[in-house]
Every structure is written in C-alpha cells, then in structure tokens.
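This part of the workshop introduces the protein records we will be handling. The question running through the whole workshop is how a given chain folds. To make this concrete, we reproduce a full record directly below:
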Amino acid sequence: MKKYRLNFLVALLGGGLFLASCGSNSENAHKTEETSEKGKEYNSTYVCPMHCEGSGSEEMGDCPVCGMDYVKNENATHHDH
C-alpha cells in the first residue's frame, strides 16, 4: 500500500512540475515573438518571407541567410521617399 501511495505522490509532483514549466515556456515564447517583430527583418520595405534574423532591406534583393527573394512589405513602418 505504501508503494502505491509513494508512486501516486511522485506522479502528482512530476505532473505539477510539468504543468508549471509549460506555462512559463509559452509566456517566454510569446515575449520573444513580440520583441523579434521589431527588427529590420519585419519592418524593412523588402523582407524575407521567412523573416530570417538580420535580413530585410530598403531595396529588392535576396536574403543573405536563406537566399530567398525579398518580397515587398506592405506593413513597413518606414519608407524612403
């Protein structure tokens, strides 16, 4: 009987730790996503469709990271006039 009680407590504790860690991971992922959308890979006039870190340009071209063609960013926050 003690063996089953101990197994139950271990499973309960492990499940609680698992659920607690999942909550913090999803919050951190959300914060990372918010901050990453401020880079030039999101705000340039031309952006990589994959939004590779360090990509983005005010001129047409290719992504230096993955090689894909840049696409016009309709949501660019600044434009050269």
In short: The CA atoms of residues 27 and 68 lie 31 Å apart. DSSP finds two helices and two strands in the chain. The longest strand covers residues 46-47.
